[in-house]
Amino acid sequence: MQQCFKREVCAIIVDEHGEIAVGQNLILNNDITECPRVKGEGYDKCITVCNQPGHAETEAISAAKSRGMTLKGATLYLIGHYRVCSDCQRECDEAGLNIVIVTKENK
Length: 107
What we know:
Elements: E1 2-3, E2 10-14, E3 20-24, E4 26-27, H1 44-48, H2 56-66, E5 75-79, H3 86-95, E6 98-101
């Protein structure tokens, strides 16, 4: 497993008790040496070529759930990206998470 070559993103969930869960946008295809996506392309190749199990946000949610953390009212801190995609936003909303974007990036 290795970091995504396009963008290193980390999501950290902190619940009301101070419990922490972390997710990253890792890829499972170790034969990849550079991102196969071109500018403006969607995330299809992240799954089909890189075998990315999920975005940092969904990986953090999965980690939190596996640890029995309370997600409703918890805060997800996103580091390394300037926005949350619509699928991740939906999962965060369904979990009841507050989202804080920690870093900015020039578009």
